[in-house]
């Protein structure tokens, strides 16, 4: 068992990482000050795999469980789905002490967290992430949201969970494509924070791809430690937390312009990391040798490193201006200045972005 504390004063919480952890979830939750009615939110892929098992362990620990199974996929992160979950919470008799438990990937975590943050002005929230992306990123740090027709994650809150339970065994059923997409975020942590971890990934990436339990456990623990450290410095993204957005400014533009679902989030971030490293080099912030190492690690797991055919660079730049990260019309990027160090750079010029993207467009 690996145990990390996210130190946020009265909002502090533990992250537990272990194989087979969902079998002990009832015991853990019964030791927390929680009401007995539970809304367990999962999706149509994860529900059939783990929903019954989790419901059973909670029932055995004395909880009454209502299982809400939402359609799998990004299109489920809507106010309509949130409203359906409010109805279920009400019907099941959840009061302010009763938890919403998210069992699934980032979609389920963000949606269930948004419901937990808003139902009765906030009820306890517990994360049980089941994708690599959710285990290393979205389940930690308290960003919860649903999408608006005009933008991703536009309606949301910072709402920390009471605990995060990461069962590494759940990754055995995850598709290889989803695992690789999660690895993009893993590489991100190496680039922005930890050069030794980046070097470890260069040496051990095959072990991770083969889902060796030790390697996965180490990767998840390291990423959670880094994410916790960043969030502890800047919980509500007033500044430093934005380094976690490395690769995401270009990545979000790709997702928006190709239509959500063509590229998995991590695949778009993979392209974004390579292009934003190039941008940093063009701006004189990063050495060419570092760009090559980043690109080599990304492409060693067959993640994309170039922009897709047919994208308009002007449309991409326009899309970057609609990103939540834009303030006062200034384009902001989280850029690496070395492997293991990143800075938030405001006011990057359109011409620097244009020439970087133009070099990496597949025609
Ligand atoms: P996801 O939740 O859609 O999961 C990916 C797919 O894997 C889904 O089809 C899901 O049903 C399936 N799945 C999940 N666990 C599985 C398992 N163990 N076995 C088999 N199949 C499984 O996607 P994701 O990549 O986990 O998360 C993406 C979402 O996370 C986006 O909405 C993004 O905005 C959000 N996100 C939030 C934060 C944050 O800080 N809150 C950070 C990054 C991303
Ligand atoms: N995923 C970026 C953040 O949590 O800030």
Explain what this protein looks like in three dimensions.
- This protein has 363 residues and is α/β, with parallel strands linked by helices.
- It has two domains: 2-173, Rossmann fold, CATH 3.40.50; 176-359, Dehydroquinate synthase-like, alpha domain, CATH 1.20.1090.
- The protein contains 13 helices and eleven strands.
- It has a seven-stranded mixed beta sheet with strand order 1-2-9-6-5-3-4, sandwiched between helices. A two-stranded antiparallel sheet has the order 7-8.
- Strand 10 and strand 11 form a beta hairpin.
- The longest helix has 21 residues, at 213-233.
- It is globular, with a radius of gyration of 20 Å.
- The mean pLDDT is 95.
- The site of glycine (GLY) has 5 residues, from loops.
- Glycine (GLY) is lined by residues 137, 141, 143, 241, 244.
Q: Let me know the number of strands.
A: 11
Broad CATH class of the largest domain: Mainly Alpha
Q: What best-fitting shape do the alpha-carbon axes yield?
A: globular
* Major β-sheet strand ordering: 1-2-9-6-5-3-4
Helical segment tally?
13
Gyration radius, to the nearest Å?
A: 20 Å
| Structural classification | alpha/beta
How much helicity do the residues have? 40-55%
**Structural domain tally:** 2
Q: Would you list the SSEs in sequence order as H and E?
A: EEHEHEHEHEHEEEHHHHHHHEEH
As a percent range, the share of strand residues is 15-25%
Please describe the biggest sheet, giving its number of strands, its sense, and whether it closes into a barrel. 7 strands, mixed
- Low-confidence runs (pLDDT<50, min 5 residues)? none
Average residue pLDDT: 95
CATH superfamily of the largest domain: Dehydroquinate synthase-like - alpha domain
């Amino acid at each position: 068992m690996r145990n990390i504390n996210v130190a946020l004063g009265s909002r502090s919480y533990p992250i537990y990482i272990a194989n087979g952890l969902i079998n002990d979830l009832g015991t853990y939750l019964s030791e927390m000050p929680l009401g007995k009615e539970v809304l367990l939110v999962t999706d149509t892929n994860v529900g059939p795999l783990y929903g019954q098992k989790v419901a059973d362990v909670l029932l055995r620990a004395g909880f009454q469980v209502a299982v809400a199974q939402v359609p799998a996929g990004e299109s489920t992160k809507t106010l309509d789905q949130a409203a359906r979950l409010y109805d279920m919470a009400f019907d099941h008799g959840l009061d302010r002490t009763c938890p919403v438990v998210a069992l699934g990937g980032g979609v389920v975590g963000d949606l269930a967290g948004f419901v937990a943050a808003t139902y009765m002005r906030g009820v306890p929230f517990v994360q049980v992430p089941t994708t690599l992306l959710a285990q290393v990123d979205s389940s930690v740090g308290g960003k919860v949201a649903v999408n608006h027709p005009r933008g991703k994650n536009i309606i949301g809150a910072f709402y920390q969970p009471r605990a995060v339970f990461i069962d590494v065994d759940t990754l055995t059923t995850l598709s290889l494509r989803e695992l690789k997409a999660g690895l993009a975020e893993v590489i991100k942590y190496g680039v922005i924070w930890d050069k030794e971890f980046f070097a470890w990934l260069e040496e051990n990436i095959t072990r991770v791809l083969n889902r060796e339990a030790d390697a996965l456990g180490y990767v998840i623990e390291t990423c959670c430690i880094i994410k916790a450290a960043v969030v502890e410095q800047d919980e509500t993204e007033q500044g430093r937390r934005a380094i976690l957005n490395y690769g995401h400014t270009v990545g979000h533009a790709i997702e928006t312009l190709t239509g959500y679902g063509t590229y998995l989030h991590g695949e778009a971030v993979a392209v974004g990391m390579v292009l934003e490293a190039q941008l940093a080099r063009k701006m004189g912030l990063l050495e060419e040798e570092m760009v090559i190492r980043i690109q080599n690690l990304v492409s060693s797991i067959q993640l994309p490193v170039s922009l897709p055919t047919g994208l308009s660079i002007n449309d991409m730049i326009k899309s970057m201006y609609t990103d939540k990260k834009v303030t006062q019309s200034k384009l902001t990027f989280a850029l690496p200045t070395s492997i293991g160090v990143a800075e938030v750079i405001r006011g990057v010029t359109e011409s620097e972005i244009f020439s970087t993207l133009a070099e990496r467009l597949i025609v």
